[in-house]
Amino acid sequence: MNDNHNSDHKKRRFSILPSKKWQVPAIISFGALLGLGFYTLHFSKATSYLSDDPKACINCHVMTPEYMTWAKSSHRRVASCNDCHVPHDNIFAKYFFKAKDGLYHSYVFTTRTEPQVIRAKEASINVIQENCIRCHENQVTDAKTASTVQHHVENRTSRTCWECHEQVPHGNVKSLSSVGYLIEPTTDVTNENEQIVPEWLQKNVQENKSKKQENK
After folding, report:
1. Distance between terminal CA atoms of the chain?
2. Looking at the domain that runs over 54-181, which CATH code has it been given?
3. Does the UniProt entry include the keyword Transmembrane (predicted)?
4. What pTM, to 2 d.p., does this model score?
5. 129 closest CA partner among 195, 69, 85
């Protein structure tokens, strides 16, 4: 009798299921938490972060200036945010870095503790520098340049690319206080088919081409 009682007591003690009187409240609570979780994922557009779409970066409006300056730069045609800002050693490193940065950014933006001027952390600086070299390897390892330009090898290995190319591709540093009203990008900026070369410049280029052809 005692053995059976102890056995039943152990089963109840180690059971993860609630007793009958708590089953309904437990189901309701679990359903509410599950629904809240799905709503949070939907509201935060969490699945968009699995893609390489640059528009995912403007889910948080404080990144709007960075998106707008990139959209007007020459890099728009050849590189997305992830091409520069996440490692490309392997798929695990890529998504681990995205997850780590994403959790940090979520915390900062949720608690409204973002800095006035957004600057890359050391880990991001290393990744960006590696990606600059990955895409522009021919320029930074050019044997002719290394043999003719003084201190070329030292300069390309001891400093970051943007110490010289400081406005590529985001332009001058902007603070949140000066661009805080930019809640989301304007339609003309997000239009990927928009012509970024001014009309007057296109006309000038065409005229110069025509003159060269006539002279030939």
Report:
1. 111
2. 1.10.3820.10
3. yes
4. 0.62
5. 85
Nearest to 60 by CA among 11, 105, 122, 12: 105
Q: Which residue type is seen at 163? A: E
Question: For residue 119, what are its two tokens?
Answer: 């600057």
| Number of other residues whose CB lies within 10 A of the CB of residue 180 | 13
Phi, psi of 58 (to 5 degrees): -100, 20
Residue 174 CA: distances (Å) to CA of 1, 30, 48, 121, 203: 78, 45, 26, 17, 32
Q: What span, in angstroms and rounded, lies between the C-alpha atoms of 204 and 26?
A: 72
> In the numeric block, which tokens belong to residue 63?
């990144």
Residue ranges per domain, the chain?
21-50, 54-181
DSSP state of 19: P
Take residue 197 and report the two structure tokens written for it: 């070369």
pLDDT tens string, the chain, 216 residues long: the values are 555 555 555 555 556 777 777 878 888 888 888 888 887 777 767 777 777 888 888 777 678 778 888 887 888 888 989 999 999 989 899 989 988 888 888 888 878 888 877 788 889 999 999 999 888 887 777 777 777 777 776 777 678 888 888 888 887 756 555 554 454 444 444 455 555 556 777 787 788 888 877 876
